[in-house]
Amino acid sequence: MILKNWIYRSFFGLFLLLLVPVIALVIYHIPTKKPIQNPTVEIKQEGSKYILFRHGKPYFIKGVGGHDYMEKISLYGANSIRTWRTDKAEQILNEANKYGLTVTLGLEVGNEWWGENFDYLNFEDVDQKIEELKEIVECYKDHPALLMWNVGNEVHLFGGNQLIVLYTINRIAKMIHEMDPNHPVMTSVPLGPNFNKRGIMRLLCPDLDVLGVNGFSKLHRVHKDTRSIFGWNKPYILTEWAAPGPWEMNSTYWGAPIELSSTLKAQYIDKYWTVLSKDTSLYLGGYGFYWGQKYERTHTFFSLFSKDGYETESVQVLKTKWSGKSIDNWAPKIDSVIIHTVPNQDNQYLLASKKYQTSIYAQDPENDTLTYKWELRHEGKDNFNPGEYNHDLSFLLSNNCTQSISFVSPNQEGGYRLFAYVYDGHAHVATYNIPFYVLIQ
């Protein structure tokens, strides 16, 4: 009997030891938002459906990540943009307001996984960061273009103690609500393998109004995973969505991700829009990625525009979805780019300092006269660090403006990419690239 009581007391003590901190955490995290009369932007639940309201009217987000070409964003039927940080925030907000656009303003916080060496267990640094963010919130909370706040981007993806990171995100969200009760707050997470367990954030981050989701090849899972028994089960926004990213694609034997042609990317955009549109209860809209031109493994992987401002087919697909209008003139379509005499097009090994022939096979829906451009670059160091990628090796090309050209392979061993561009004379471009590896004889 004594042994039995001892076991019982031990289990009861252990239960209290585990339960008390959880209860304390929940009590501490009770949302402190005080409802105000007619907030500028709010999320309301009507039955099983959540709706975003702005100035008292339903507001479905049709947006893009990035702030280039804002006039086109508005002209093509979109209504919002998303930023990742507050660099040039005032300029971006003012220009967005000029074109009738809203802004989800990103508040950049330390991200251990991205190598910023920010330690969330250093509470002094965390407190300092929150004080810095207070000044930003105070500065922009009354701007007419502000839609909502986005606290960090994939901050708790690997690296660091996720519980502490989420705790800090909620501290920031609580601070924002105390200063600005007129705009919702969210954070962005990846649509990864554990997304169907994001319900933990409802406990640890109760001051978040909505969840931002960055989704690419797994977008077909968002509806089911959001509603899983341990899922978020609250409103969400696609803060980044696009065709599959470099980390999701098959790679060559030497580790270079295979990039889809702009033609295939546009097909993904069309398919994903249909998938997302089926969720009419939790989905509040999304931001296509990336409106402009940026490096992420290549300068074409996510870029909806070329560096000289030409539109890819994906821009046109988005335009049809936003506006409901048809396109008069579509971008060219690339079927393939082939380096002749190389048998394996997926893993192409070339000999150093040897001459090769290559061709673009493309077509135009309106039979416009096509022009061509080629580039030869080093393989990027990784998805975010270009390394020698920015060194254009076009001097090795015999001619960079015809449908078929010859080129001399570099004389240094390593990975490279051959880029092909096709233009239709109507400010549209199609893109394709081939990774290859140079061997020294």
TrEMBL record:
* The UniProt record lists the keyword Membrane: no
Keywords attached to this entry: Hydrolase
GO MF: hydrolase activity
Glycoside hydrolase family 2 catalytic domain sequence ranges = 76-244
Pfam families reported for this sequence: Glyco_hydro_2_C (PF02836)
Xref: InterPro entries: GH, Glyco_hydro_2_cat
Q: Does the keyword Hydrolase apply?
A: yes
Q: What's this protein's name?
A: Glycoside hydrolase family 2 TIM barrel-domain containing protein
